[in-house]
Predict the structure of Olfactory receptor.
Amino acid sequence: MIKVNLTSMSGFLLMAFSNDHKFQILHALLFLVTYLLALTGNLLIITIITLDHHLHAPMYYFLKHLSLLDVCFISVTVPQSIANSLTDNGYISLGQCILQVLFFIALASSEVAILTVMSYDRYVAICQPLHYEAIMDPSACRRAVIAVWVAGGISGLMHTAVNFSIPLCGDRVIHQFFCDIPQMLKLSCSYNFINEVAVAALTTSAAFICLICIVLSYIHIFSTVLRIPSAEGRTKVFSTCLPHLFVVTFFLSAAGFEFLRPPSDYLSAIDLMLSIFYTVIPPTFNPVIYSLRNEAMKAALRKVLSKEFAQRKVNFKAIFKLERTI
């Protein structure tokens, strides 16, 4: 990696996945493919839900915002990491690092919140179907989404303000591929970062409460589903809910373990895998788990693709006729 004199600069040096430039290129290609898959899947879901009026229901309204969060979330860290690997230069300016921390924490917090709202939506739909339309009316859905984005923004602002108010000493080397708060705390001049610990405890408690709410929602859902006489109905609900619960638990567990344990002095394979599990994997696989396995979503996708194919066929015929007349 290109050496950067950080003593005369205010930025940081992000550690590479490997000192071998060939492996850095391989990492950049893998991240690029993953990034493109995440963008394609999530933008496709946003487009389908927006165009198909049959999907203008609370569940799909929340799915659209989850996909929007995923597009933004993966765009905060992965493009910067790809650029650093391709240029063999891990330097990131102070301003870039501040923005990365701000948006990373804000979007991660918003994602946890929207997953909680989605679990509540499924709870009402399955356990209280007669009251679903009254509880999940359009105004309530809009307020819930606004609360999700506002809560995430407040969390991001608090972490960013407190984290970058701590004086730093020594080499500004962050042992991660992005500006990771636990790793940045290791650079502080002293262990006097009680404010950041307090903010982290607050957000961790909020995330834990969200996890408890999600688990309780699914416990009620499963207890209701087990009373369904139809085996096909039970299988359908379980096949939808279990992957949701697994992804939420996996995301929160990986992020919680990384943020709560003491920061290490080097980037180990475990650190790397954990960071990838909660920064790259969820936005890439959420479209498959939450949306593209849904029959209504697949039917809407086929409709959109068939319309696009028919339009292209008409355009091709028009061009062909024009060429023949010429």
Remarks:
- The chain is about 75% helix and 0% strand.
